[in-house]
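Inverse folding, one chain.
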């Protein structure tokens, strides 16, 4: 079901690289279909959306306006949920909102030694598009984790799209849209949704940035439209790396591995431990628990293809390997996780201690679960308020304070052979043309 590796094996580096290898380029057919779909929507607008919705989602509508989900439908979905379901969504939404409200805006201003006022101004993006996956399963959590940070950031208008195969609308997704504050929502999915958000149609407004995870066609489309719109990232298969010792119950760790593996066959779950006996216990727990898992086939495929139980020399080596992997989720399920936290440099989200299950981050802890994947945590960060804001530099100079800057600027401009730049700077020195 799952491979066993040891860091002391001379072949370990090669084995680990093979385990982590993931082709980030789309299959040629995926790229071709995505490009054709984008071109069709860009040129055909609403008519193309209706045609593609019929082709890919089996969704028949009389007009493009029927693709919009009315605000009353969102309200009805929320009020119609079972009480426990509604309260769970409300609790998660409140925690996510509270966490993101604490994030800094990064605005500042100061005066330098010459009297120039310099600073940074932060303003929200005007209109954001959120793609909510819905082809294989429903994800109300993704609605909360993407829309709420946008609203906290001050985005004026959030446009959501979600596929509704054969016209089936998931009430939990609609209820989450209502709670999170989606301004308009449309039953459009796939590459055609990304194209509509990027270029706009008569019905779906053009946005400034598109965020949210999706399948291969969505990822390909986001890559293709980048430029006309901003994007958050190109999402890959979900992944977790667990560093554990015997202080964590083997059954808990086995379930944590399953929770990651059940996403899809390409998901990755890795367990590192300096205690071989503990790895044996986790493996035994996996064998005992797997038959009762409703998604056992998917879990088995994922663990066989990309999972591993890895014996390491010590926790220091485990942290070194974790930094090489730079996982989306990193769980330090060890006795003293805070001791090892400083050793971690690359991870999308870090979970400290056995009780801090990764699944809490998926749904209810507060930070967004939209995280960097396939090693991009080396340079990328979780989705946050800052992803929905842009920054403008502020420079305010006077006749006196501009002079020393102008001399420096003129010198560098001349060295670069940009005479107009130099002249524009020097003009501030003598005030020529100021009257």
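Residues assigned per position:
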């Amino acid at each position: 079901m799952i491979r066993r590796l040891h860091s002391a094996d001379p072949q370990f580096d090669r084995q680990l690289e093979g385990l982590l290898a993931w082709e980030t380029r789309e299959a040629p057919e995926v790229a071709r279909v995505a490009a054709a779909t984008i071109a069709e929507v860009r040129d055909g607008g609403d008519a193309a959306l209706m045609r593609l919705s019929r082709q890919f989602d089996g969704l028949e509508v009389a007009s493009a306006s029927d693709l919009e989900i009315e605000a009353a439908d969102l309200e009805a979905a929320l009020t119609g949920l079972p009480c426990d379901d509604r309260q769970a969504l409300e609790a998660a939404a409140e925690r996510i909102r509270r966490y993101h409200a604490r994030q800094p805006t990064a605005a500042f201003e100061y005066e330098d030694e010459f009297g120039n006022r310099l600073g940074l101004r932060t303003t929200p993006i005007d209109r954001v598009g959120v793609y909510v996956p819905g082809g294989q399963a429903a994800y109300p959590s993704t609605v909360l984790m993407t829309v709420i940070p946008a609203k906290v950031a001050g985005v004026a208008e959030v446009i959501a799209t979600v596929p509704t195969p054969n016209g089936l609308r998931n009430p939990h997704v609609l209820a989450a849209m209502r709670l999170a504050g989606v301004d308009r929502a449309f039953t459009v999915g796939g590459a055609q949704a990304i194209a509509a958000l990027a270029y706009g149609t008569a019905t779906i407004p053009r946005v400034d940035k598109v965020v949210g995870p999706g399948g291969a066609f969505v990822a390909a489309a986001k890559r293709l439209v980048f430029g006309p719109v901003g994007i958050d990232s190109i999402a890959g298969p979900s992944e977790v790396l667990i560093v554990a010792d015997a202080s964590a119950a083997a059954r808990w760790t086995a379930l944590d591995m399953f929770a990651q593996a059940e996403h899809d066959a390409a998901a990755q779950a890795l367990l590192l431990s300096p205690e071989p006996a503990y790895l044996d216990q986790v493996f035994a727990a996996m064998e005992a628990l797997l038959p009762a898992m409703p998604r056992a086939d998917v879990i088995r495929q994922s663990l066989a293809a990309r999972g591993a139980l890895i014996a390491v020399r010590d926790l220091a080596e485990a942290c070194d390997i974790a930094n090489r992997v730079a996982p989306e989720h990193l769980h330090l399920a060890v006795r003293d996780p805070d001791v090892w936290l400083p050793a971690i440099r690359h991870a999308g989200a870090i979970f400290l201690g056995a009780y801090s299950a990764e699944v809490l981050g998926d749904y209810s802890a507060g930070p967004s679960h939209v995280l960097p994947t396939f090693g991009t945590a080396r340079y990328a960060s979780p989705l946050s308020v800052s992803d929905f804001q842009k920054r403008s530099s502020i420079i305010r100079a006077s006749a006196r304070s501009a002079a020393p800057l102008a001399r420096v600027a003129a010198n560098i401009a001349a060295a670069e052979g940009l005479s107009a730049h130099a002249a524009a700077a020097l003009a501030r020195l003598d005030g020529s043309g100021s009257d």
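Residues 28-57 form the longest helix (30 residues). Residues 28-231 form a domain with the Rossmann fold fold (CATH 3.40.50.1980).
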